[in-house]
Design brief:
alpha+beta, eight-stranded mixed β-sheet, about 30% strand
C-alpha cells in the first residue's frame, strides 16, 4: 500500500529565494529531474551519501526514487541554481500501520552552497511539507561524525534517539555508526512560533 501525498502541498512552489547573494529556485521534484539529481549526488562527498536510503549515484537508485515520487511515498523539494541542483529536502512517508505518523527527513546540499543557510532553509521547508502531509514525528539519520548535519538538526529541536553500531557499510567496506534523531513536528512549530519565526 502506498502513502499518497496531498495534491495541495505544492502550492508554495516554485519560489525564488536569495541567501548570501546566491539565488535559488525551490520547487517540487518531478520525475523529469532524475538525471539532474544523479549529477548532484555524483558531486557529493561519498561520506555525505551514507545516510541516504538509496544510492543516488546509480541509475537504479534514481529509478527507485522516481518510483517513490510517482506512488506518493516521498515528497522531494529541490533547490536549483545556475549550476543545477544545489540541494534537496525529502520527506519519506511510512506506510506501516503502526508508524504512519512518522516520516524520515533527509536534507543534502552541494559543497558549493555550504555555509549559505541553504541546508537550514531546506530543513525548515521539509517541516512544512511534513505538516501538510499530516506527519507528527520526523526522524533524521546521520553518521555521528557528520557535524554539520548533527548541529543543524539539533538547532531545529531534534534529540538523539538511537545509535546503531556498524549500521552502514561504505563502498570500501568500512563500517559506520548511524545516529538517529527525532523531533515532534508540533513541538518544532510551537518553538518557531514562540520565537516569532
Amino acid at each position: 500500500m502506498s502513502v499518497q501525498a496531498k495534491a495541495s502541498d505544492s502550492t508554495n512552489y516554485p519560489r525564488k529565494v536569495t541567501l548570501k547573494d546566491n539565488d535559488y529556485t525551490l520547487r517540487i521534484m518531478s520525475v523529469e529531474d532524475g538525471e539532474a539529481l544523479r549529477a548532484f549526488a555524483i558531486d557529493l562527498p561519498a561520506h555525505d551519501t551514507l545516510y541516504m536510503r538509496r544510492d543516488l549515484r546509480s541509475e537504479r537508485g534514481i529509478e527507485s526514487w522516481i518510483e517513490d515520487i510517482e506512488d506518493g511515498t516521498i515528497r522531494s523539494l529541490l533547490a536549483v541554481d545556475d549550476a543545477g541542483v544545489a540541494g534537496f529536502s525529502t520527506i519519506h512517508l511510512n506506510s506501516l500501520e503502526w508508524t504512519r505518523h512518522v516520516a524520515d527527513i533527509r536534507v543534502a546540499t552541494a559543497v558549493r552552497t555550504r555555509r549559505t543557510g541553504l541546508g537550514r532553509l531546506l530543513a525548515r521547508e521539509g517541516f512544512n511539507m511534513a505538516l501538510e502531509l499530516g506527519v507528527e514525528k520526523l526522524l533524521a539519520r546521520m553518521t555521528p561524525d557528520q557535524d554539520g548535519a548533527r548541529v543543524l538538526f539539533e538547532e531545529l529541536g531534534f534529540k538523539p534517539e538511537a545509535l546503531l553500531k556498524d549500521y552502514v557499510k561504505d563502498r570500501d567496506g568500512n563500517y559506520h555508526d548511524m545516529l538517529l534523531k527525532g523531533c515532534s513536528v508540533q513541538s518544532f512549530l510551537a518553538q518557531r512560533e514562540a520565537y516569532g519565526r
